[in-house]
Structures are given as C-alpha cells and as structure tokens.
Target: Haloacid dehalogenase type II
Amino acid sequence: MIDVRVALFDVFGTVVDWRSGIASAARSWFAAHAPDRVDLDPFDFADRWRARYQPSMQPIRQGTRGFTALDVLHRESLVDLLTELGIDVDGAAVDALNAAWHALPPWPDSVAGLTAIRGLVPVAPLSNGNVSLLLDMARNAGLPWDTILGAQVVRAYKPTPESYLRTADLLDLEPERCLMVAAHNDDLAAAQACGLRTAFVRRPLEHGPGGADPGPTGDWDVVVRDLVELGAVLARTGAQTRRS
Model:
C-alpha cells in the first residue's frame, strides 16, 4: 500500500446510509403528499426504489442508451414505483422526494475516517452519482472530499472498466496508485481487474438489521470494519501524498 496516492470511494452504502435516509424522507413525504398511504413501510419503499438502481444503468452500460445522469434515472425509477403503488402526485412532489438522495446521512465513522485518510492522501468519490448530487450530499453530510469524481465526470457507470481507468487517467496516476474503497465485492472485483488496489469496508447494516451481510469474498488488499480503521491502516503502511 506504500505507493497508493489517492483513495477513491464508493458512496451509496459505503460512505452514506442510503436505506435509512430514503426511508426517513419517504415517511415524511407520504405524510405530506399521500396521507392515505402512510401505512406503507418506508424501508420496504426504499428497498424497492433501490432495487431499480442497477437495472436503470444497464442500457447505458450496454450502449443502447446515451449517458444519463443518475438523478434522471432515480426519478424515472421513482415514477415507475409510485405508479406501481397507485400513487398519483404532481411533478414537484416527485422532484421533492427524488432530492432525498442529495441529503443522505453518513455512517457514524465516515466523516472522521475520511478526514483521517485525507491527511495522508487525497480523497474523492468514485460513485455512480452525478456531480450535483454528490456535491449536495457532501455539504449536507460534511464529507471532506478533495474533488468530486464519478460516473458523470468520466461518462461511464461502474462496474465498467472505463469508470475506473478514466478516473485514474484524470488524476495522472497509474491504476495501481489508486485505492478503491467499497463495501461491495462486485465494485472491488471490477476495480481490481483494472489494476486498482482495493479496500473492503464492512457495512453489515446497509440493508437493515435483517439484511444480508456477505462480507469480503475476494482477495482484497485491505479489509476493515470502518473508515477510521482504514485511516489507521493507511497510516501504518505508509500511504503518502507525494507524487512521483
């Protein structure tokens, strides 16, 4: 790990708690805009909305749809879900709920962990979120990014190779000088295949107390329980900001 010069982070689930954030926003939104449906489980609603996340990006990955920002994909998925639930609201109400992705809460260790890591190497999201979403989220949650990177910047959605390789190229770094940090094995596997170093962060509550916790399934460079521990590991192994 001594040659790592930047730490790149998956965001949804790794840095922020999307499920609790969306459920909280949905609970308030139903009370205001669909009071006859307040019986709906907000966590189930969050899960069903999130379940449309990967399928919504697949046509773009396959080249059958031009690049489209995640905010747009999230909104399309939300309209589809509301229609499925028989909820008819105006566009402004839909926009208000869609904006919940911009204000997701960080995990308890995220801000302190990112701050510690940032003292060693630059930190940036390598997320499928669009720039305005990630910027708003950072300001709301206090995430200390050095810059905002991700799918909209490189015009490619993870886990396509372009998303990782174009990011490394933007930073003028060889892939092996970049550390991909994620709570998702598929993200790390794709990054590793492109030559990036990998760090698995355990997030057993991403899908709720009863959700699946697969744990690390690959040969990752680092496995940690949270981002504070990752900062300590990087400090011990000599990660540095000096660029060759």
User: Anything to note?
Assistant: The mean pLDDT is 95.
